[in-house]
Amino acid sequence: MKRGKRYKEIKAKVEKKEYTVPEAFTFLKDNTKVKFDETAEVSIRLGIDPRKSDQMVRGTVFLPHGTGKKIKILVFATGDKEKEAQEAGADYVGGDELVERIEKGWTDFDLAISVPEMMAKVGKIGKILGPKGLMPNPKVGTVTKNITEAVNDARKGKIEFRVDKTANLHIPIGKLSFNPEKLEENFLEVLREIIKLKPVTSKGTYVKNIFISSTMGPSVQLNAQEIVKSLH
Fold first, then answer.
1. Element (H, E) at 212
2. Which residues sit opposite 172 in a β-bridge?
3. Would you give the DSSP letter of residue 50?
4. Residue 89 Ramachandran class (φ > 0 left, ψ -120 to 50 alpha, else beta)
5. I want to staple 18 with a disulfide (CB 3.0 to 4.6 A). Which of 45, 85, 223, 226 is the partner?
């Protein structure tokens, strides 16, 4: 990927060292020069083999200070549950008509929730929703009869994460406009949850590398082992 002049200037400032968490967020905040509020993201390399089903790392976590982003929530539901979703504040609610709309390529939403009864129909668009990380899943609470709770949780900063094929996690942890302490608390909450999810079959070092970056900026590396040790 070709990088612009601004990116290269900031990249040149990144020291060849492992940053502390406060140093990392201070660096990102001091070097944001775009006209929008960038998202801070953590990238974590895990010592697992994601090709093995018993080493899949997937879950949800509540960010103490939220994501800083207003997300668009879609709910697959009909009847009383459709009304419940609307009253909870979901942005899009419906049944067959939403499935048909998505089949035609529309995916302008950030999170999909479904009642169990709709999943047979939602499964037909799994090839569209799955690659985009939008497929409802009971393991992370997005296939549920308690629609109000699911919508409220999402609004309060509940995010879903899943390791990719290269054993990496990429998780948004807030906006650069947050003060560094809030970003640090969000980050540590994410890391605690990932550590809890360590597969029993994972051998050796579990959290191998941790990088923090912003939407338009370069990443800085953290001292993964020291941070993990401090959480035990």
1. strand 207-214
2. 41
3. T
4. left
5. 223
1 SS3 class: coil
* Tokens standing for residue 36: 């929008």
First to last CA, the chain: 38
Cα–Cα distances in angstroms (integers) from residue 75 to residues 53, 81, 86, 157, 190, in the given order: 28, 9, 9, 17, 26
Q: How confident is the model at residue 2 (pLDDT cuts 50, 70, 90)?
A: low
pLDDT value, residue 13: 87
**Distance (Å, whole) CA 101 – CA 31:** 41
User: Mean pLDDT over residues 74-89, rounded?
Assistant: 95
Euclidean distance between CA atoms 6 and 216, whole angstroms? 9
For the stretch 155-181, pLDDT in tens is 888 888 989 999 999 999 999 999 999
The rounded radius of gyration (Å) of the Cα atoms in the chain is: 19
User: In this structure, what token pair is assigned to residue 97?
Assistant: 């008509």
- What is the DSSP secondary-structure string of 142-167? -B-S-HHHHHHHHHTTEEEEE--TTS
Amino acid of residue 93: V
Sheet of 168-175: strand order equals 168-175, 39-46, 207-214, 220-222
Q: Is 64 helix (H, G, I), strand (E, B) or coil?
A: coil
The residues near 135 (Cβ < 8 Å, ≥ 6 apart) are: 112, 122, 126, 129
Query: Residue 108 is which amino acid?
Result: D
